[in-house]
Amino acid sequence: MSLLIKNGYVVTPEKTTIADLYVENDTIAVIGESLTQRADKSIDASGNYVIPGGIDVHTHLEAPVGGTVSSDDFETGTRAAAFGGTTCIIDFATQSKGQSLHEAYELWRKKGAKAALDYGLHMIVVDIGEGRIEELDDLVEEGVTSFKLFTAYPGALMVDDATILQVMLRAGKKGALVAVHAENGSAIEYLVRKALLGGRTAPIEHALTRPAIAEAEAVHRVIALAQIADVPLYIVHVSCEESLEEMRRARQKGIAVFGETCPQYLLLTQEYLKRPNFEGAKFVLTPPLRGYADQEALWKGLQSDDLQVVSTDHCPFLFETQKRAGLNDFTKIPNGGPGIENRLQLLYHYGVNQGRFSINRWVELVAANPAKLFGLYPKKGVLRVGSDADIVIWNPNRKHTISAASHHMRVDYSMYEGLEVKGNAETVISRGETIVDQNTWSAKPGRGKYLKRSSFAGAWSTWK
Ligand code: URP
Ligand code: ZN
Ligand code: ZN
């Protein structure tokens, strides 16, 4: 199969040029002006942008959280992602206490067998007892080249500083990247207990018991641990100015600290958790939504490169049946929200259309940098000869009102209900196959391939 994409504005982090792309099977074969190759299919991309497919490095599909399971699986989640211009995800496999890392990895590979998009896996490590630490090395060989640790959720996912240090040292030796969900779990646990004892049970208490400074403290601490281990560090879902300040200070000292934020922290505030009729539960996610000053700081962080990635932390739960479990106790609301479908649309509309950054920076934040940091570059995240033909034809004029009534995620609400955005994916191509065209889906579940990712150290050497 061959495909010719003509006359589009081809966008890279460095520049935008009018060019044609010729795709042979699953790979970009030629990029140039006025190409004349005969192809099985031709697309006229005049007036549209041609971008590398988005890469979402933070998703939780079919994930066990708070006694329930996130409502999108690898089939529905990757399908929804594709409609929004994402062609690759990295999901979080999660070790259970006492479980071997191999078992957790195999379990997530089974879940991933339904994926419609190519996917990679990080591993959330919760238990390194009984010689488990050595298993990290085997996972790196399997292409799991990033490990996530939690300083939050005591009794469930939280690990102590010694464990963090051991994982950093072991991962560092293999050139793998350590990512941290940073919040002071013990302090938060105390604040939560106090709230419940005081009869404060509404969704807003979720945010009030998880103050920004509890996030920043943990960011500071794990940066110090990364310094001791002498390894690079990635902070997931940065939500507030104080955390960003810690990261900026470290980066100015030359410490390799990278980070992501998510659309919800750029666009929504804590006020949403006060919505009546328990609707605030739709916005219970962790770290919690913050304020306008934090939003401004995060946008600036994306501009200044103190943050390098925008992911979604897609972790959806049905409002009617899953979120309602916490009707009388905010701690029983499963933490997480949907967004895998809307990342490129929201970032394009509020970032590029509103003049916060260029279209080139947008491509860098949603595709190129995620690929570079997580060992997929230049196979993915860039339009280059020899790269996978993961290509999105982006129509900058296509308007779209975000709504649960029309989205493809398996969840009964949208955090962005009613927002009108301009700019959307017109055609989505994954390894040369057109999977979305004019809002029509034509791919099979299970077509997605598991991606054995390179080590961070290897990826790092090709950076810039
Ligand atoms: O609320 C969230 N983010 N749920 C998913 C798990 C996590 O902390 O990333
Ligand atoms: Zn997290
Ligand atoms: Zn997450």
Could you give the topology of this structure?
Blueprint: E1 2-11, E2 16-24, E3 27-32, E4 41-44, E5 49-52, E6 54-59, E7 64-65, E8 68-69, H1 74-83, E9 86-94, H2 101-112, E10 118-124, H3 135-141, E11 146-150, H4 161-173, E12 177-181, H5 185-197, H6 204-208, H7 212-229, E13 233-235, H8 241-252, E14 257-261, H9 263-267, H10 292-304, E15 309-310, H11 343-353, H12 359-373, E16 391-401, E17 420-430, E18 433-437, E19 440-441, H13 456-461
This protein binds N-(aminocarbonyl)-beta-alanine and zinc ion (2 copies).
| Helix/strand structural class | alpha/beta
Q: Radius of gyration from the CA trace?
A: 21 Å
List the domain count as a whole number: 1
CATH class category label: Alpha Beta
The total count of strands amounts to 19
Mean pLDDT score, rounded? 97
Measured between the Cα atoms of the first and last residue, the distance is: 32 Å
Biggest β-sheet description: 9 strands, mixed
Would you tell me which CATH topology applies?
A: TIM Barrel
Hetero groups bound?
Answer: N-(aminocarbonyl)-beta-alanine, zinc ion
Q: Roughly what fraction of the amino acids lie in strands?
A: 15-25%
Helix coverage percent: 25-40%
- Give the CATH H-level superfamily: Metal-dependent hydrolases
Mass-distribution shape: globular
Helix count equals: 13
**CATH architecture grouping:** Alpha-Beta Barrel
